[in-house]
């Protein structure tokens, strides 16, 4: 599938500045999820998903607690969820998910990132139809056969099970995210290397070196934006 999930996560958090940026973005995401429902992950599924993701990035408990307490206190910041679709070099496709309290600022920043790095924004639906919403869960300490067996025993259906380096990566329908995790937890697995609800391209592409350099700059520029939470694309990220 062209994606080394553990490598991608490590790359995102490889620099101190990036780590701080990731923590800040999780703070916003947790606040929004907690404010939209109960500030309890056991009764707020969206919040539970965000907290599971945060754990895989080692987001400090203080940041998580602060965001939840802010939501409990009826913080007056209102955020809007936005999705942008666009094109990068050589026909590459990009989806950008954002949380913002200033729509005009975010739209301008995202458009600028595209145009300055060889890309262009598309209309809604111009790219997303080539992607599938997917749950991705990774763990270590078990073989692919063991994972398949325990999922079958738990009567949980998944799309695929892949061995990646020393980890096992499970791909499933989004509505199976919690069922997969619960099956693992019942088997004694409490730590996950990856726990994402993501958008996977139906077909990955490879870019020539010059286009890859430009594409990487585009992705970096988008991920550096304060309001951008996730960036998905169809370029083979295997390193």
Protein structure class:
alpha+beta
Helix content: 40-55%
Major β-sheet strand ordering: 3-1-2-8
Number of domains: 3
Examine the coordinates and then state which fold CATH places here, giving the name of the CATH topology of the largest domain: Alpha-Beta Plaits
Q: What count of helical segments does DSSP give?
A: 8
CATH uppermost class of the largest domain:
Alpha Beta
Instruction: List the uncertain runs.
Output: none
Strand content: 15-25%
Mean pLDDT: 89
Structure description:
- The protein folds into 3 domains: 5-72, Integrase, N-terminal zinc-binding domain (Arc Repressor Mutant, subunit A, Orthogonal Bundle), CATH 1.10.10.200; 80-129 and 202-233, YebC, transcriptional regulation domain (Alpha-Beta Plaits); 131-201, Alpha-Beta Plaits (2-Layer Sandwich), CATH 3.30.70.
- It has helices at residues 5-12, 16-36, 45-56, 61-72, 103-116, 144-153, 177-186, 209-224, and strands spanning 80-87, 93-100, 120-121, 131-140, 160-164, 167-172, 194-201, 228-233.
- The strands form 2 sheets. It has a 4-stranded antiparallel sheet. It has a 4-stranded antiparallel sheet with strand order 5-6-4-7, with helices on both faces.
- By secondary structure, it is an alpha+beta fold.
- α2 packs antiparallel against α3 (45-56) and α2 (16-36) packs parallel to α4.
């Amino acid at each position: 599938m062209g994606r080394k999930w553990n490598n991608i996560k490590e790359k995102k958090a490889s620099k101190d500045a990036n780590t701080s940026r990731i923590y800040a973005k999780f703070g916003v995401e947790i606040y929004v999820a907690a404010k939209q429902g109960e500030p309890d992950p056991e009764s707020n599924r969206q919040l539970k998903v965000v907290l599971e993701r945060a754990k895989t990035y080692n987001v400090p408990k203080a940041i998580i607690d602060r965001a939840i307490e802010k939501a409990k206190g009826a913080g007056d910041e209102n955020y809007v969820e936005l999705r942008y679709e666009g094109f990068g070099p050589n026909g590459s496709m990009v989806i950008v998910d954002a949380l913002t309290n200033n729509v005009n600022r975010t739209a301008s920043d995202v458009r600028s990132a595209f145009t300055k790095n060889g890309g262009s924004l598309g209309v809604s639906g111009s790219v997303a139809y080539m992607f599938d919403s997917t749950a991705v869960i990774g763990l270590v300490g078990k073989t692919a056969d063991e994972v398949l067996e325990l999922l079958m025993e738990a009567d949980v259906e998944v799309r695929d099970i892949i061995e990646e380096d020393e980890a096992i990566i499970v791909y499933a329908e989004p509505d199976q995210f919690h069922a997969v995790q619960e099956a693992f937890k019942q088997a004694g697995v409490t730590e996950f290397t990856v726990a994402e609800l993501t958008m996977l391209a139906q077909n990955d592409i490879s870019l020539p070196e010059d286009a890859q350099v430009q594409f990487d700059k585009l992705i970096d520029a988008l991920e550096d934006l304060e309001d951008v939470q996730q960036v998905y694309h169809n370029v083979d990220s295997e390193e």
